[in-house]
């Protein structure tokens, strides 16, 4: 399944509001990116879910392995064509990066 991760630079509120507005046409807008293009369900109302500490937004498609999911993390927006793809991307972003090793200084 396909996913997209975008860094959020204009703040979470702006991203949240933009995505809420985009939900109206998101299923149709993403059709060219879907590997299999199912009929978009007549009810395009996104539902709310939870993954770990993150809110998820999803629209189930007629094919049981497909959905349109979007998740907003602290600094990123994830859009994917399945629940598993979106959650996998979120998990990778949530993993803390190891602290950079300090090289000993020579005096």
Structure characterization notes:
This protein is an alpha+beta fold. It has two helices and five strands, in the order βαββββα. A five-stranded antiparallel beta sheet has the order 1-5-4-3-2, with helices on both faces. The longest helix is centred in the first third of the chain and has 18 residues, at 12-29. The chain is globular and about 35 Å long.
Percentage of residues in DSSP E strands: 25-35%
| Widest sheet: strand ordering | 1-5-4-3-2
Cα shape = globular
> What structural class is derived from the secondary structure elements?
alpha+beta
Number of strands: 5
User: What is the rounded Rg?
Assistant: 17 Å
H/E element sequence: EHEEEEH
Unreliable residue stretches: none
Intertermini distance: 53 Å
> Major beta sheet, specifics?
5 strands, antiparallel
Mean pLDDT: 83
Given the structure, what is the number of helices? Answer: 2
Approximate helicity band:
25-40%
Could you write a compact summary of the structure shown?
The protein has two helices and five strands. With 107 residues, it is an alpha+beta fold.
SSE map:
Elements lengths: L2 E5 L4 H18 L17 E5 L2 E7 L6 E6 L3 E5 L2 H12 L13
Antiparallel strand pairs: 1-5, 2-3, 3-4, 4-5
Descriptors:
single chain, 107 residues, alpha+beta, five-stranded antiparallel β-sheet, 2 helices, 26% strand, globular
């Amino acid at each position: 399944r396909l996913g997209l991760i975008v860094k959020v630079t204009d703040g979470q509120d702006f991203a949240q509001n933009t995505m809420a507005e985009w939900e109206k046409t998101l299923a149709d807008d993403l059709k060219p990116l879907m590997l299999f293009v199912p009929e978009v369900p007549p009810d395009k109302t996104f539902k709310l879910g939870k993954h770990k500490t993150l809110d998820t937004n999803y629209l189930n498609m007629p094919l049981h392995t497909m959905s349109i999911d979007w998740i907003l993390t602290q600094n990123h927006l994830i859009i994917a064509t399945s629940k598993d793809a979106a959650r996998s991307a979120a998990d990778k972003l949530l993993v803390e990066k190891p602290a950079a090793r300090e090289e000993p200084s020579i005096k």
